[in-house]
Amino acid sequence: MQFAKRLDKIPPYLFTEIDRKRQELLAQGIDLIDMAIGDPDQPTLSPIVQTMHQALDSPDTHNYPRSRGTLAYRQAVVDWMAHRFGVIGLDPQTQVTSSIGSKEAIHHIALAFIQEGDLVLIPDPGYPVYRTSTLFAGGEPYPIFLTPDQQFLPDLTTIPESVAQAAKILWVNYPNNPTGAVASLDDLAEMVEFCQHYDILLCHDHAYSEITYDGYRAPSVLQVPGAKDIALEFHSLSKSYNMTGWRIGFVVGNVMGIQGLSQVKSNVDSGVFKAIQQAAITAFSTSESELAAITAIYQRRRDLLVSGLQALGWPMTPPKATLYCWVRVPRLYTSTEFASLLLETCGIVVPPGNGYGKGGEGFIRMTLTAPDAQIQEAICRMKRAGIVYR
Fold first, then answer.
1. How many other C-beta atoms are found inside a 10 Å radius of the C-beta of residue 91?
2. Which residue from 218, 189, 221, 217 is spatially nearest to 203, judged by alpha carbons?
């Protein structure tokens, strides 16, 4: 028995490796503070759970769903996009599909549009699935390095003309994982213009659209005039509504993009359980005050972590969005060395920045999904161990 050669190009998923190390240490009785994975520690909102309970009793939810989602779910997506972003005119029949979270859709879009050797422009650092999905489809990832000098926004002027001409997909993600960077509508408009000029499918991963702070509201790329002609936007209910385990999201935008993705999905999966879709419809009606209560928890934790690190000498600017702080490592360490130091000395689990690409070297990512007390304890452990920024 042998693995397929395609797996030679695919590294183990970053968090699979982190979880393996964590389980080893837990088995040894070591007290760990997990600041690695962005998995909300708060429960799913009660009205969503209640809808799920009611839907389970309905035989109508017990048979196969459509891979693209129920019409009621897709219409709820259209209504939410209009209410939240002012994006009107989306057709639930041709411009919307459900997804099993956003990760599977990010993977499957490559199978619809990438052929052997095609170039895909991916942010570096960036969500690892952009790269691995490209490799699975036989494409070639081309990194666009995100730097502090550019506020972790892509400098599209650095892309060689030959690369731009050959590229098939551009991945962008704002609010950004792992950096916490944000983009304005003008920034998104530049990306749309670039993709229109070179006939590139613009894929905007908008998983953190509702996790924003300090009055910032994340725009949708579909607010840009003409974006529907060239762009797809990938949404997930996982982070915004504390629904990571439910595995539901949606993709909206370009008709051909939705058609291609749907063709792949119809041959790979059987859609999202209809009871979960009904619960998600309830999620879309969550009040602004309820969503604000969720983000207030993360903003408080962000402030605890940032102020604690600043007290230890770290140069920190509070992120305006996402569940993460992108933290520089001290100059004497690589990302991997510093992540190992925190684990072995303090029992703090964090991913090294280079796990998100070469452009992540020199950073670690710390999540805000750890409880307040654990964030404070993490800072105390670092202080006791003499770990400071220098």
1. 13
2. 221
**Tokens linked to 109:** 């879009």
Within 10 angstroms of residue 192's Cβ, the number of other Cβ atoms is: 23
pLDDT at res. 113: 99
Which DSSP state fits 346?
A: I
How many angstroms separate the CA atoms of 259 and 97, rounded? 9
Residue type present at position 316: M
Phi and psi at residue 287, to the nearest 5° = -70, 160
Grade residue 16 by pLDDT with cuts at 50, 70 and 90. Answer: confident
Q: Are 144 and 157 in contact (CB under 8 A)?
A: no
The pLDDT tens digits of the residues spanning 81-130 come to 999 999 999 999 999 999 999 999 999 999 999 999 999 999 999 999 99
Amino acid letter at 254? Answer: N
Domains within the chain, CATH numbers bracketed: 5-43+289-384 (3.90.1150.10), 46-284 (3.40.640.10)
| Strand, helix or coil for residue 14 | helix
Pairing of strands 119-124, 167-172: parallel
The string of DSSP codes covering 133-163 is HHHHTT-EEEEEE--GGGTT---GGGS-HHH
Task: Tell me the pLDDT tens digit for each residue of 181-238.
Answer: 999 999 999 999 999 999 999 999 999 999 999 999 999 999 999 999 999 999 999 9
Q: What are phi and psi of 83, to 5 degrees?
A: -70, -45
What is the rounded CA–CA span in Å between residue 245 and residue 295? 19
pLDDT at residue 25, rounded to an integer: 81
Residue written as token pair 């009785």: 29
| CB-based contact 267:111 (threshold 8 Å) | no
Q: How far is CA 157 from the centre of its chain?
A: 25
3-state secondary structure (DSSP) of residue 352: strand
Residue 105 near residue 68, CB atoms below 8 Å: no
State how far the Cα of 93 lies from the Cα of 371, in Å rounded to an integer: 42
**Which residues, 6 or more positions from 381, have their beta carbon under 8 angstroms from its beta carbon?**
33, 345, 346, 347, 348
CA–CA gap between residue 151 and residue 154 (Å, rounded): 9
